[in-house]
Specification:
This protein has 328 residues and is mainly α. The protein has two domains: 96 residues, no CATH class; 189 residues, hpI Integrase, Chain A. The strands form two sheets. Strands 1-2-3 form a three-stranded antiparallel beta sheet, with no helix packed on it. The chain has a two-stranded antiparallel ribbon with strand order 4-5. α8 crosses α12 and α12 packs across α14. The relative contact order is 0.11.
């Protein structure tokens, strides 16, 4: 698998285990298998090795890996309920292994879940913050051209970071006179996302610059790859390093780097904040909530409203109505 986000989404192969198979309900057994597969898929990519025996791998799991799994799910925008359920499954899995004498300690016990209603940031970027972030890459270089397209796909199209790194040119097509992306999104659901014309221009400029730098991007090649900086006789050159796709971790790092560059707190800015910003700025700009829900590919409008409601509650707060009637 190309990156940790895809590994979490697709999971590892299914394993039998006394804890899982001991559940009375088939629905529960299926849910636990999915949670364990997501965790093991994450570990396989993190360790860069396949897992063939669950019982053998259990004693090697440490707290750091479980924390990394939780944080990766946060970055990918999984709901608190999904994250907490998966952590609970891991705790129970390791507790069962401890009771069977496979482990001495349950390292998952002290890994905290997320509180109800948790959001990764109290508010999305403002339009001014979004603009300075989009303006940060130096688009006179191949690196800057690539990075501006990546930032734009998350801010203007609401793409998840895992969807960005998995993009290939053949997914770009047209529909009803508009450029669109067609791909398999979260939950293996088919997705279609509009590409605004200014962004399509940026994508084409990046593809042309990549070809000039020695990498012609084929229809089924990864759109975004690592780019290295080299000192040549005629100055600094930015060149594609390989055909291997960028990882979600690399994209998270570039988002934080540009956030720091423009004076935003890099600890608070990560790829999913840009998706929050997509929802917030679209609704602020007058887009109807149900259209934003469909563009963001949320299963429920409640999820879309959860992204937006904290700002809406502050902008239109009951205290403001009281201050129209009394003075302080």
């Amino acid at each position: 698998m190309g990156n940790m986000a895809l590994a979490i989404e697709r999971g590892a192969k299914s394993f039998t285990n006394p804890f899982i198979e001991g559940q009375l309900s088939e629905h529960t057994r299926r849910a636990y298998r999915g949670d364990v597969a997501a965790f093991l898929g994450f570990i396989e990519v993190r360790r860069e090795q396949a897992i063939t025996d669950l019982e053998q791998v259990l004693p090697t799991i440490d707290k750091v890996e479980i924390l990394a799994f939780r944080n990766a799910m946060v970055t990918e925008g999984y709901s608190p309920s999904t994250i907490n359920r998966r952590l609970s499954t891991i705790r129970q899995l390791l507790e069962d292994a401890k009771e069977r004498g496979i482990l001495e300690h349950n390292v998952a016990k002290k890994v905290k879940g997320l509180p109800d209603g948790w959001m990764p940031r109290s508010s999305a970027l403002t339009s001014q913050e979004a603009q300075v972030l989009l303006d940060a890459p130096d688009t006179t270089t191949l690196l800057g051209k690539r990075d501006k397209v990546i930032l734009s796909l998350m801010l203007l199209c609401g793409l998840r970071v895992s969807e960005v790194v998995a993009l290939i040119p053949s997914q770009i097509t047209t529909s009803y006179g508009h450029h669109v992306l067609r791909f398999m999104g979260k939950g293996k659901k088919r997705a279609m996302v509009k590409i605004p014309e200014p962004l399509m221009d940026l994508i084409e400029q990046y593809q042309k610059a990549s070809a000039l730098a020695g990498r012609r991007i084929g229809r089924n090649d990864s759109l975004f790859v690592h780019i290295v900086k080299r000192q040549e006789d005629d100055g600094v050159q930015y060149l594609p390093a390989s055909n291997k796709a960028l990882s979600t971790r690399a994209v998270a790092k570039l988002v934080k780097r540009y956030a720091k560059q423009v004076g935003l707190d890099p600890e608070e800015i990560h790829p999913h904040v840009l998706r929050h910003t997509f929802v917030t700025l679209a609704i602020d700009g007058g887009a109807k909530v149900f259209r934003v829900q469909r563009a963001a590919r949320h299963a429920s409008v409640t999820t879309t409203q959860r992204y937006y409601s904290p700002k809406e509650d502050l902008d239109d707060n009951p205290s403001d109505y009281i201050l129209e009637q009394v003075r302080l």
